[in-house]
Amino acid sequence: MQTAIFTTLLVASLLFFAWSVYRRLSLVLLGLPEERFDQPGRRLSEMFLYAFGQLRVIKKPFGLNHFVIFWSFVILAIANGEFLVNGVFPSLSLALLPEGLHRALLVAFDVVSLLTLFAIVLSFVRRIVVRPPQLDSLYVKGRSPEAFAILAFIALLMLAYFGMHGAIIAQGREAVASAMPVSTVVAAWLTHAGVDLTLVERVSWWVHALVLIAFICFLPLSKHMHILTAIPNCYFGALEWPATQPRETFEKGAEYGVGSVERFTWKDLFDSFSCTECGRCQSACPASITGKPLNPRQVVHAIKTNLLENGPALKEGRKGTLPLIGNEGEGTNTEDAIWSCTTCGACMEACPVLIEQMPKIVKMRRHLVETESKFPEELLNLFENMEQRSNPWGIAPGERAKWVSTLPVKPFVAGETEYLLYVGCAGSFDSRAKQVTVALATVLNAAGVSWGILGKDEKCCGDSLRRLGNEYLFDKMAKENVEIFRERGVAKVITLCPHCLTTLKNDYRQYGLELEVVHQSELIADLIKKGRIKLDGSEKSLGKIAYHDPCYLGRHNDIFEAPRTVVQAVTGSAPQEAERHGRNSFCCGAGGGRMWMEEFIGDRVNHTRVDELLAENPDTVCVACPYCMTMMEDGLKDRGAAQVKVRDVVEVLAEGLLHKKG
Questions:
Q1: Which residue ranges run through the membrane (predicted)?
Q2: Which of 66, 339, 359, 613 has the fewest beta carbons closer than 10 A?
């Protein structure tokens, strides 16, 4: 009778499980095509590193606890599989395996079950006592009931496991009881307690069975579906850092960006089912931290909810009724949230299952700009200035080379000049950034580098346009720049600005232009290494230096050591580090086109970053980006700390050279 009842329940649950998984994952096919099946060897390597190795999970202090739960789940899947099979076919069990292997498995099951129970208790304590805010439910106030239910399920499974096996051992029916140390202790306790061992065994067996069946049914309906999708999502993850976005085809009647959920790619939709809602992206996001309406976790959750709501209609060729972009509500992203993103990439760096949140936001921006013509009012001037005069301020192109008036600067000539110095808009027009340009030109001349400029023929690279979603204007400017570079025979480029660096190096590849692009800090560090710039490490006029990692230099282009190398060569000591630095650095607030927008909601991002840097009591804040320069100087003034200097890394070097000459 027990076998018949259990078999009926199990078959029903498996059918429900299969139907539920199909119902959800079939919706992924509504997404647009995207190539994620290339380089299977490398993809397998990434999957083992991030999914099975839990590389990003264990970077956080509590990550080890999840590591234990994950691997316990993998190991105990064998034990639970045997339980299910044995429940239907009582004659089949792991006892049929060779004795040595059987005993090894029983030891593993016993020990791992105990470790899992400890890990679950710690998880309960964390959620009830520690209560980290990122674990709050997105749309339900307080802790997530679903998370508590899953933790309770796992705890019950472990307790039932020990109750069942302890009772069997106490009855003398386990031939290899010595391979089950924890269950043996439980057996001794049950014997001492004088309980009905048959009843304990029967109740534990059914608790174990019903919890497993309930888990099978509940899994595909919950956020814990990531148990099924996270591993393949790591396999399909981006093999290169997604520092750019796909091009668009501009033709009559075409749709631009993503205004409804089926306009995302299949991988975007698969991401939404892989989100663990762990909150790591939320904890890293500068917009979320400073009280903006953007929460990367919520963006991904909204995509999933929207897909589940609209999916049936979309499969029938009808339009969905729940808007992807609109007023606040589950399954919808607000415009304020979409425009709050600084595209710093902290969310992608933090995500343990390689979800790509930032590109999804840019895709929705494209829809707002190109299809709806809806964007913050202050961007209108930016777009007009870019289109008419190819710079954010709308200054006449003839003004681009005015910074060279006191320096011997030559135009770039193919075959005669090695490097094109791509000055960029800030380095050409911003009064503070022009000082950095002069410092760089001085250093390059001192090192004997062959370089030249385009002067008035230089155009904006279009970084802000692309990140703000104005792909049409970016496309136009990129094509013009590519044509100029090809006509002039440019092969090597030096940039002052990380935003120019990432655009010329990464975005322009989509236009068939392969350039060797280096940031000034990389080139200078290399010149120091080769002995073309000689320093004695004695420059102390800048006092204690704290270095701020620009997002577009660090996370987006993996350049962390070069600026630090320069500072150390000049001063003789490494710069001080803020609490968040390197890959975990905190954004200045200017990326993603936010340089040209006001912050009306929450705290200012640059204030939060400046506060972190001031905690180190620096005399100088060193940057390697003109946007960061502006944000740091403004933030220090607002915080009443204008006495702290802000210097670009090349200015630090220039002062070191000046000191040496003196």
A1: 69-97, 104-125, 145-163, 175-191, 203-221
A2: 66
